[in-house]
Amino acid sequence: MGETTNDSGGPGGDSDRRIGRRALLIGGAAAAVGTAVLARDELGRLWWRTPGVEKPRKEGEVDFRGADWVAASSANWRRADRPDDFGIDRVIIHVTQGSFRSAVKVFQDPGHGAAAHYIVGQDGRITQMIRELDVAFHAGNRDFNERSVGIEHEGFVDRPEDFTDAMYEASARLTARICARYDIPVDREHIIGHVEVPGTDHTDPGPHWDWKRYIPLVREAAERAASPTPTAGPTRTAGA
Description:
It contains 5 helices and 8 strands, in the order H-E-E-E-H-E-E-E-H-E-H-E-H. It has 240 residues and is α/β, with parallel strands linked by helices. The chain folds into 2 domains: 31 residues; 159 residues, Peptidoglycan recognition protein-like (Lysozyme-like), CATH 3.40.80. The chain is globular and about 35 Å long.
């Protein structure tokens, strides 16, 4: 938890100089275009910081149907407009190293300096504490914070019994929905553990998190969500 706040001319010199000047002009034009693109992107990222500008939001709105909303302290995340300002291409799996209730409490503490978007309980309940469009301070790496959604899981890394069937299944449904929303591939390159974030000193989700089970569960959940709901057939009368 927490963000690391992370000419000389050779033979035929005249000809060479003319080529050099042309290259310089072309290079300068390309650099100007690149600078303009960067400036535009930066303005896109900063638009919401302009006084009086606010992306429309509904209090208590969640991004995953079925999740409960409990707001994290505003000191533990920053307002953004993802994926328009920062593309989302990762889901990061965490373990709370404590109870569900304690995780909620610390994410509400402005002095904690960190929070994830979601917490998944051992009983399968899901609480959202930060909107996906905002940047949560969860990865300990600014770039990864900006490009990811963080999911905490109730338990301890050294207790495999904490990772229940209900937790795996609920988390898989949540991750599948996030991947579908942002077109994130369901694989281990894009669904990673906190320990895999560059520069972090965290070890979660630890050796007992069953990736060989989890990724197939996410794929299954994604396939179910993508399948059309069967329509009911004609009503049959008794004796027909």
